[in-house]
Amino acid sequence: MSNLSFKDLKTTMQSGYLPYLLAGAHVLIGTILVYLNQRSIIAFLVLLSSFFSLYRIKADMRYKLFIGAVLALIIIPVLGVRNIFYLEVIFQISVFSALALGLNIVVGFAGLLDLGYVAFYAVGAYLWAFFGSKQFYTLPYTPGSQPTDLPFLLPSDMFYLFIFLAVIVAAITGILLGLPVLRVRGDYLAIVTLGFGEVIRVLAANLDKPLNFTNGPQGITPIQRPPMPQSVVDGFNAIFGKLVGHQADVSALYNVMFYLMALGIIVIIIIVSRRLEDSKIGRAWAAVREDETAAIAMGIPLVKTKLSAFAAGASFAGAMGVLLAASRTFISPESFSFMQSIGVLAMVILGGQGSIPGAVLGAATITILNLQVLQGLSLYLSQLRQSDAVIPIINFAWKNLSSQLDPAQYQRMIFGLILVLMMVFRPEGILPAQRRIKKLASESAPNKE
Amino acid sequence: MTIAIETLGLTKIFGGLVAVNNVDLTIPDKAIFSVIGPNGAGKTTFYNCITGFYVPDQGSVTFYGQPIMGLSPDQIMYRGIARTYQNIRLFPSMTAIENILVGAHSRLTTNLIDAIVHTPRFREEEARALDEAKRLLKFVGLAGQGDRVARNLPYGAQRRLEIARALASKPKLLLLDEPTAGMNPNETTEMIHFIRNLRDELGITILLIEHDMRMVMGVSDRIAVLDYGSKIAEGSPAEIQHNPRVIEAYLGRNASEAQN
Hints:
heterodimer; A: about 450 residues; mainly alpha; ABC transporter involved in vitamin B12 uptake, BtuC; 2 domains; two-stranded antiparallel sheet; disordered C terminus; B: about 260 residues; alpha/beta; Rossmann fold; six-stranded mixed sheet; four-stranded antiparallel sheet; about 25% strand
């Protein structure tokens, strides 16, 4: 009975003008909550989840896009400048969404398990890190011994060119890796990509001699950001200054800019993956994923098809790498560990392999878990530890709590748990991929023909 | 007489087992030609040799005068040979129409850039391919089922969808591997008509592996019999029915003597 009424409620909520109102209200409430409570995780989650309710409501596409654009392009930047930590979280969500969407092409569409995906991200990042910093002039010096007054190799606005260059370079890297590797199937491919991911990281850590390309484990810094005219800062302050409550500085606006760029790349990736999915190439990927032998018999060239998936996935990671290098102004091999690859894979699996909204949801969930929930818990526990509080009944003083019990350290365990639980209980993910329906039912009902 | 496909001395050896032994076959254009034989006679291996999944150890395969031996399966598909499988091999989680569109892969010419930009060329080709796929769906009697996921279709429908997928490549030669396996007599009768239609309406040459003798005798122009990898007989259905070596292969020596 209660089940039935829940269904009724769901239908009512999705009919007439109600969905428009509900989604609008969700956005509004989220905005107000975050505006009033600058530190509340819950308020932030309410605001972020309004993207999801916008996605799920039955409403005119134009309404969804309009509200979504207002939310993403105005509300979030303004609230983000008010509290720069939110902007950082949002930026990370965007970066990981883009990576998850890229990996989704390889793992979800073409069914090739890639355990070294961040290698392509590293290729993009090191590309700009080398050409967009002073690294070129430090080639003859061992790390740490270079003079401090070296010039930058390239002007900072070359950054935009390098986003495109990174797409190409990463795609070529993907093809070069793929050529010898893609003849092996399934598990073997996963093992080789795992090795490749580690090779790139180790190369980055050791290419500081004989010529100092990567500055070794210390990483490259400073890396240039694209130029930010003072007029943009002034303009932002003139329009949004009152809402923000304080004058925004250049670094805050840089964060906004990188967030918007990441968003732009995400939009491009979504459009490109949707279009590819519904084309000859996307169908070939799906066919190879479902039954390699039958796919070959249908005239699908196996190696070429797999290579194109590898290259497409890699190219997006390359672009995000350039963005990462510029936004952080510093990169080191540590950012490209095996754990990162697993993290992105966990996002894809959590959301649903082959599902575009799933990849974004997976990225958002895991990033928030990492940055907000776990760190929030850690902070809370350490506060308790410093206080004199005691757990009542068992009479346990918080300050005796082992410092090993730091939730932020449990990131790996949580990735592992997510992977295990999803595979056992919902292997298709939270938002499973839907086969694209061509709306044939109405036009080809048998009695009409 | 145009020859669709010709094998000369085709031999495939697995370790010590001669799976296909020195088989000569000549299949005329627009024929319905059946290959029969007891289980393990090498029929499917013979198919795999023609379609490039196995590289024969000896002999040659010519397709409309062109040698095709040694080409990869996808290249052979491009030349105009399509096949179905003994155990259905659809793409299970794709829809029926998508399965057919995959079959049309070899005929679509747009590239990655066309697909990303949605050039007019791409849209036109996709629309045309979709129309064609719908037509094929109707041709195999699955009109209105296009959006159903392949694995959810009934068994008979899956068999017919697999044929539609093969037809989407516009093959000159279609290799069917036990198309009536698991079908009831009514469905088998339908399949006989269907295969005749393929030849008569679409002008496709058909090579058929089949166990159901009613089907084989009802539909074939010519039949070849394989036993232990070797061709032991070839002829019209009537000739095969009375060939003592065929009876012996199927029923044993005593049966063939009893009939003589």
